[in-house]
Inverse folding.
């Protein structure tokens, strides 16, 4: 087949683990909101999950270029299976049931032990995610030709989005009703199955050995230097970092926005995620066509302007259907950005540097998420103290909308179709 015989196995492994992640999308926020109503404490859970992208991404890149990438993916998902099992045991230790949000105090509940377990577990799960995701993106060019990367990435994201946001959340809400520990048990099983599927990949591309191994810091500096001197990838990394930071400002306490402003149940909360999945699935199957029709540059501009518009609308409204529609559009645009930019990186970064340069790029791009999450919680807490709860929960969306428009002004002259085509051509000549 055009995408290679190993691609379906990687496809299946990513889909299965994302089904578990989709269940966790409902389970973890609901668990945190059942423990505390404090927006800063809830935001800290999101910070803990994404902090490894700031602290561990750079060394993960060196590991990816030194160690067999297939083995890294198996180990990371195996470890995540164990950690998620421990979260399930912690919930079972509590008795498998937690109080509803309306039964809790304004500051923090007496479930501080469980909160601490969740905080530590989410941070360690984030470490596993950094290793798995960086290895999987670095692994893809070794099993799929450059001509088919956009198609392969688009299909994979469509499937992962369907599992993560369309199937997982409603399953998670049903499992929460059946027993609070059940979603975490199933999530652990999904990671274990994903690791087993990766093990079935028979032939793996070897880690590049064309360049002699250097000391750890030397190899890391090489990756940083390559990205920083690249005229296209450097601003692209900065732009994505700003976008992810602004997105984290809104989603760090989104569970409170959904509960207090939209008045959602667990099922309605899952439905919002499912609406986003619809947009992501459509983008996964059509992103390469949109990119060819509009051009890579205008397609990326569309994601920036559209993101600002959807954020503003969500901040203004109070009904679930409108927010769901905005989520669908937002997710479509986010996946469109990812398909174009990840495929570009995979095609222009030399293989022996791919793990390190990819990790440096994601350090800028994803390292802003824990910072944005903390800022989001502080914005809500401060605004709540001076202007009331409703405006406080809407304020992150307004700030994100204004920030995304400012990013568009910076990005438009730097992310053009001509620049991206030139980068691909230069990489081909270099090969």
């Amino acid at each position: 087949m055009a995408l290679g015989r190993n691609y379906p196995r990687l496809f299946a492994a990513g889909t299965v683990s994302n089904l578990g992640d989709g269940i966790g999308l409902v389970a973890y926020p609901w668990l945190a909101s059942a423990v505390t109503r404090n927006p800063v404490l809830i935001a800290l859970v999101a910070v803990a999950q994404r902090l490894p992208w700031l602290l561990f991404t750079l060394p993960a890149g060196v590991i990816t270029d030194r160690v067999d990438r297939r083995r890294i993916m198996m180990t990371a998902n195996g470890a995540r299976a164990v950690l998620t099992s421990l979260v399930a045991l912690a919930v079972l230790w509590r008795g498998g049931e937690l109080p509803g949000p309306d039964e809790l105090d304004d500051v923090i509940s007496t479930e501080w032990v469980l909160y601490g377990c969740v905080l530590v577990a989410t941070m360690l799960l984030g470490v596993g995610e950094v290793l798995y995701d960086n290895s999987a993106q670095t692994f893809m060019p070794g099993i799929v030709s450059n001509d088919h990367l956009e198609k392969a990435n688009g299909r994979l994201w469509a499937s992962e989005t369907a599992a993560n946001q369309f199937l997982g959340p409603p399953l998670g809400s049903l499992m929460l009703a059946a027993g609070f520990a059940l979603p975490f048990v199933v999530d652990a099983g999904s990671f274990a199955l994903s690791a087993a599927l990766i093990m079935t990949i028979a032939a793996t591309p070897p880690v590049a050995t064309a360049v002699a191994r250097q000391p750890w810091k030397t190899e890391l500096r090489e990756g940083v230097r390559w990205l920083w001197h690249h005229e296209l990838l450097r601003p692209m990394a900065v732009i994505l970092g700003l976008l992810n930071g602004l997105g984290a400002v809104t989603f760090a306490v989104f569970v409170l926005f959904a509960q207090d402003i939209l008045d959602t149940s667990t099922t309605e909360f899952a439905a919002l995620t499912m609406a986003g999945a619809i947009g992501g699935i459509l983008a996964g199957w059509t992103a390469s066509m949109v990119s060819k029709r509009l051009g890579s540059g205008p397609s990326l501009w569309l994601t920036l302007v559209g993101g600002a518009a959807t954020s503003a609308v969500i901040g203004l409204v109070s009904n679930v259907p409108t927010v769901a529609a905005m989520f669908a559009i937002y997710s479509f645009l986010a996946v469109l950005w990812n398909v174009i930019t990840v495929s570009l990186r995979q095609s222009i970064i030399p293989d022996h540097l791919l793990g390190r340069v990819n990790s440096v790029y994601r350090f800028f791009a994803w390292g802003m998420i824990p910072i944005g999450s903390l800022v989001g919680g502080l914005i809500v807490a401060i605004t709540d103290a001076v202007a009331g709860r409703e405006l406080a929960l809407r304020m992150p969306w307004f700030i994100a909308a204004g920030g995304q428009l400012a990013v568009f002004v910076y990005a438009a002259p730097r992310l053009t179709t001509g620049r991206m085509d030139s980068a691909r051509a230069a990489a081909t000549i270099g090969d």
